[in-house]
Amino acid sequence: MNAVSMDEINKLVGLQLGVRDVAENSLLVEELGAESADVVNIIAVLEEKYQIVVKETEIAAIKMPADLYALVDIKLGDSHL
After folding, report:
1. SS3 for 31?
2. What is the pTM of this model?
3. Is 58 a residue whose pLDDT tops 90?
4. How far apart are CA 31 and CA 51, in angstroms?
5. Domain at 6-78, CATH homologous superfamily
6. For the chain, which residues make up each domain, given as ranges?
7. DSSP label at residue 3
8. Residue 79 confidence class, pLDDT cut points 50, 70, 90
9. What is the C-alpha separation between 26 and 29, in angstroms, rounded?
10. Which H or E element spans position 9?
């Protein structure tokens, strides 16, 4: 199973949003200019890359890259059960 790293998440977010400097605590919408569709696209990439499923109800809690990292990390942990 692929392990996730904060660096990978930051790079993906930066690539998707066209932003160079992404910190784990950068606010996706307020600081990085993400639209809701951008967040959905980022999650779709993560779902495909890590073979996970993110529920719509979980998307609302995503405010910064650290949230994406935590979500993927938990999903990967759940898949080992």
Report:
1. coil
2. 0.90
3. yes
4. 29
5. ACP-like (1.10.1200.10)
6. 6-78
7. -
8. low
9. 9
10. helix 6-17
